């Protein structure tokens, strides 16, 4: 569960990112955050995994009080909340399989990263995730040799290999062409339905949000202006 209670976020330069957000998302929901550029969508997503710290209020993620975490605890917490970025954030010259396995390496274990000493379990988990997003056949190809859609599937697989109930995604399909964008959204939908993962993503493409998410949260100037089922969304928001 994700629970925002009167959360506000003010950036150090005084810019208001979020103002008085109240939002509860239950396990297994598929929620899209919509709003124009600068509305606060990324800020909201980034608060959930502690990439942004909140200025006021309470934020609980699976009973963890995110604002209280720091250092090692915060890094550990983040490992259990999958995050997908618009720009994929892959290691370009590493294979797809390695990119996915990196997500399972405890961050102190640089040795493992540098020498690539992954366990059999790491490898099997990574292959299983690649299979779930339909790119198992790309496991031994370098990440930078894949198309945008395939790279985004690798980052989905990477998030899936983390032991996580929650997948966050910051504009995951905005760099993709419309057909590929739908294919990636289909993957999110399947992961949501088959694996009961909570999906919280922001997307400026309203039609896609309405088609795939069951719940829409619209934000404007850092405040929630709509929160409800996608079928009740009217043109005005
Ligand atoms: P988008 O509208 O596509 O979400 P933004 O232009 O709002 O992107 O932000 C792009 C990046 O720049 C983000 O990482 C954001 O944190 C940062 N950023 C946005 N506005 C400011 C600002 N006023 N000062 C510093 N960094 C900013
Ligand atoms: P969106 O994702 O909806 O485009 P953001 O969450 O990126 O919006 O930005 C919300 C507001 O916060 C904007 O006014 C943006 O300029 C500002 N902002 C974002 N990141 C930063 C930052 N690092 N420093 C200062 N202001 C920021």
TrEMBL record:
PANTHER family with a match to the protein in the record: AMINO ACID IMPORT ATP-BINDING PROTEIN, PHOSPHONATES IMPORT ATP-BINDING PROTEIN PHNC
Top-level lineage group: Bacteria
Taxonomic path: Bacteria, Bacillati, Bacillota, Bacilli, Lactobacillales
Protein's recorded name: Phosphonate ABC transporter ATP-binding protein
SMART domains noted in UniProt: AAA (SM00382)
Stored Gene3D superfamilies: P-loop containing nucleotide triphosphate hydrolases
GO CC, alphabetical: membrane
Annotated PROSITE patterns: ABC_TRANSPORTER_1, ABC_TRANSPORTER_2
GO molecular function terms noted in the UniProt entry: ABC-type phosphonate transporter activity; ATP binding; ATP hydrolysis activity
NCBIfam families named among the record's database cross-references: ABC_phnC (TIGR02315)
Record-annotated ABC transporter domain positions: 2-237
Gene from which this protein is expressed: phnC
Listed InterPro entries: AAA+_ATPase, ABC_transporter-like_ATP-bd, ABC_transporter-like_CS, ABC_transpr_PhnC, MetN_ABC_transporter-like, P-loop_NTPase
Source organism: Lactococcus hircilactis
Alphabetical keyword list: ATP-binding, Cell membrane, Membrane, Nucleotide-binding, Phosphonate transport, Translocase, Transport
């Amino acid at each position: 569960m994700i629970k925002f209670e009167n959360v506000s976020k003010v950036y150090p330069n005084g810019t208001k990112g979020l103002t008085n957000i109240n939002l509860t998302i239950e396990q297994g929901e598929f929620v899209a955050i919509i709003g124009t550029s600068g509305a606060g969508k990324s800020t909201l997503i980034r608060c959930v995994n502690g990439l942004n710290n909140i200025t006021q209020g309470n934020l609980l993620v699976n009973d963890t009080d995110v604002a209280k975490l720091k250092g090692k605890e915060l890094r550990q917490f983040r490992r259990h909340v999958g995050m997908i970025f618009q720009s994929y954030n892959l290691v370009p010259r590493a294979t797809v399989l390695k990119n996915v396995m990196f997500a399972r390496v405890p961050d102190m274990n640089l040795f493992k990263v540098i020498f690539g000493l992954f366990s059999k379990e790491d490898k099997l988990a990574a292959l299983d995730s690649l299979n779930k997003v339909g790119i198992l056949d790309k496991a031994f190809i370098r990440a930078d040799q894949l198309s945008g859609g395939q790279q985004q599937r690798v980052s989905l697989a990477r998030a899936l290999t983390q032991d996580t109930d929650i997948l966050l995604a910051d504009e995951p399909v905005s760099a993709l062409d419309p057909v590929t964008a739908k294919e990636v959204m289909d993957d999110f939908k399947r992961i949501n339905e088959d694996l009961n993962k909570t999906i919280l993503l922001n997307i400026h493409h309203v039609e896609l949000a309405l088609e795939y998410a069951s719940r829409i949260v619209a934000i404007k100037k850092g405040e929630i202006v709509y929160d409800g089922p996608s079928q009740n969304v009217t043109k005005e928001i």
